[in-house]
Specification:
Length: 162
């Protein structure tokens, strides 16, 4: 990676410009043609510096104002089947399993939900409970967004990626 690669990554951290030719605009800021921006991005991806390239939306501007984590109590023998059903629920963006903490926290499965209201989330959770055949869960709503940063950061001093 050279300085121009680092500058390109720093530009991308700010998000793509909302224009017809975002890579041409970024190239203009860096003093290189759009084709050079795209070539560099392909090389950085091929070399494993960039793992993926995806959109990140401002969920509040899209009307998603409520978020919840749901912790599910799933009997061990139903782990795979219930987890598969939870993952298939409409609206579930993340679904994962964790080891319980015996005597302190015996929830094993977790789902993440986003919607325009708490009422919508609760209706969705009730639907998931029915689909998965589960009735023991707790819903934890987000109360505040503390920090939103890109997944990759470039050091100001030109050092390695974090």
């Amino acid at each position: 990676m050279d300085t121009l690669d680092r500058d390109l990554l720093a530009e991308l951290e700010q998000g793509l410009p909302v224009t017809r030719e975002p890579f041409a605009e970024i190239g203009g800021r860096l003093g290189i043609p759009e084709s050079a921006v795209l070539d560099r991005l392909q090389r950085l991806k091929r070399d494993g510096v960039i793992r993926r390239f995806r959109a990140r939306i401002d969920q509040r501007k899209a009307g998603i104002t409520e978020n919840a984590l749901v912790a599910w109590r799933v009997p061990g023998e139903r782990s795979f089947e219930a987890g598969t059903r939870l993952a298939r629920c409409p609206g579930v963006t993340h679904c994962y399993e964790r080891r319980p903490v015996p005597g302190r926290w015996d929830y094993t499965h977790y789902t993440v939900h986003h919607a325009g209201s708490r009422r919508e989330i609760m209706a969705e959770v009730e639907q998931c409970a029915k689909m998965a055949g589960l009735d023991e869960y707790t819903v934890v709503f987000s109360t505040e967004e503390l920090k939103r940063v890109p997944a990759v950061r470039v050091r100001e001093n030109g050092g390695d990626l974090q």
